[in-house]
């Protein structure tokens, strides 16, 4: 338990060391990151350093994953012209065109697996029915990591709305067995909304419903 807490503390310290905001504006603990995160839809347009993007993606890949399949795949778009071309249409395009980067969180819907109990058996392609849960966990980690670094981000829905994901998959050359789950614009915040208080004790049922 002590080792787990120490690792969590070190992770937060690493994230905070690259905080883009003033030190007093940066969350100071893992719980503070979770409780103070909010959706940011307006950005300054400043680029996000490659090092910070890699830190955010490492946080995404640290998410839990069923059977350790790790189905997440990420398409990161930083080129302003390409962001405008792929994501610049629609009434809320401003959150994309002012972002420093856009991360498309995708899930590979199949994986190669040997027959159960046959370690020397042939691998066959199997459906991964848990890809969207794993990738949702990865997306949440990305949002939290961005916030810990003093950046802003927002989850915009993709899956299962085909009318949203099909054009993006085509524009980015995403393979047929990989599905865009959500699209996350992120960057230096140009707004500072207060986080919503979502604590509702009436939604909790102790021991049983």
Please tell me about this protein's structure.
The protein has 209 residues and is α+β, with helices and mostly antiparallel strands. 36% of the residues lie in helices and 17% in strands. The chain is built from 7 helices and 7 strands, in the order H-H-H-E-H-H-E-E-E-H-E-E-H-E. Strands 1, 2, 5, 6 and 7 form a 5-stranded antiparallel β-sheet that branches. It has a two-stranded antiparallel sheet with strand order 3-4. The two termini are 30 Å apart. Mean pLDDT is 88; it is low at 1-16.
Q: Which features characterize this protein?
A:
disordered N terminus; single chain; 209 residues; five-stranded antiparallel sheet; 7 helices
Ordered list of secondary-structure elements with their pairings:
Elements (H helix, E strand, L loop, with lengths): L1 H16 L12 H7 L13 H12 L10 E6 L2 H8 L6 H4 L3 E8 L1 E4 L10 E4 L3 H18 L3 E2 L2 E2 L4 H11 L5 E10 L22
Antiparallel strand pairs: 1-2, 2-7, 3-4, 5-7, 6-7
Helix pairs in contact: 3-6
